[in-house]
Amino acid sequence: MDYIRAFIVGGIICVIGQLLMDGTKLTPAHILVSFVTTGAILTALGIYEPIAKFGGTGATIPLTGFGYSLAKGAMDSVKKAGLIGAFTGGIQSTAGGVAAAVVFGYIMAVIFNPKSKK
């Protein structure tokens, strides 16, 4: 059942992104930023936590999940370290994922021959 819930929630997020790309003049960069921001805002409002618990990785892996991780890390860190936690918590909570993306991206660039678009 976890797989089905993850598929449904992740699929809904992807459908929203596809509809934004097809129905608006927003660039993929605009959509990326809006998804991360939406995830952070929904987390701050307490709306994204139930979605993440229901959808599991279907809600935490897409871009909205990155915003969720940033906001949740900042909020948790504020409780522990005070105001300085607002600046450090989000970075600490997402550092592993960002580092993995950089390392694996580098490895793929070394293994394969990257080509620029023309």
From TrEMBL:
It comes from the Bacteria. This is Stage V sporulation protein AE. The keyword Transmembrane applies. The chain crosses the membrane at residues 6-22, 29-48, 83-112. It comes from Paramaledivibacter caminithermalis (strain DSM 15212 / CIP 107654 / DViRD3). Keywords: Membrane, Transmembrane, Transmembrane helix. It holds the Pfam family SpoVAC_SpoVAEB. The keyword Transmembrane applies.
